[in-house]
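Record ABC transporter substrate-binding protein, 344 aa.
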Amino acid sequence: MMCKRCLLFVMVAMLGVAGVSGAAAAKLEKKVVVYSTHGESMLELVADEFEKETGVKVDFINLKGQLADRVRAEKVNPQSDVMYGAPSSVYLELKGEDLFAPFFPSWAGSISPLFKDAEGYWFGTIQTPVMMFYNSDMMSRETAPKDWSDLADPKYRGQLVFRNALSSSARATYASLLQQFEKQGQLDSGWDYLKAVDANTKRYYGSGSLQFQAVGRKEAPVSFAVLNSVIDNKIKNHMPLEIIDAQSGSPVITDGIALIKGGKHPNAGRAFVEFAGSPRIQALLANKFNRLPTHPDAIADSPGWMAETQFKVMDVDWGALSSKQSQWMQTWDSEVKDSGKDKK
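=>
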């Protein structure tokens, strides 16, 4: 019987489509360095499983909102091998800055084109819908918002609490909403819309836990968050939360993975990409952390709600958004956030 580590060597060596020769894949380095936005407990689980499978030690650093800047700063002398986590808009930005090396893992062909780069520079391992929700102890389905546009209605003044734009999901959501206006040639109206939403917003929070606590203690009934966080708080914390399937759809963020160009441990980096996006690991994270997989086989082995929950997807051009999101969110932070407080 072939040992697990030998089997992985063979698997990586067979990926000729990735441009990895058998000689280059013949030996994995002793460690791999992973920069990520994922939580510590999730990273520890993937790292432990990878080390058990390959014998390669994983040095991971959770950089949250600083991940992209760190990768950029190290372009001349990369200190990491893999970027794991962060939304696809960030991957598109960094691909354009020549920071990734192309690599096609064996599972790449099984995921939707929505979740991957056609040239092999990054691939989605988690799909993350961002959805509105409300506290059903405070509001009925009939009186709850039906679409994102409703959040600007004055009748919801003081009934909204959100994350600030330091959150990658909030940044992507605010920018996605703004893009809907831009596509119609009405960008100024988009800024007016966000200011109207701000006027209805009671408070912004710097962390997801504080945001959900605010909704739970009835500070305000309406918010938005990534779907798995809503499900977590509904099931594990027994919060009376109801999801809103927005009429115009919800942004679906793709959390990705990519091989960093010039990394010091390229073979171990390729092996980690192969491993972390595999159906087994995607399903493991689905069952342990409620992360919705991109791989169909993983969804089949995941909690039932992942296959059963239906939601409309907002039409977002993530490629176009990648070049504008940072600038737009600087404007949001300086000109929109809390601009309506004096009107409340």
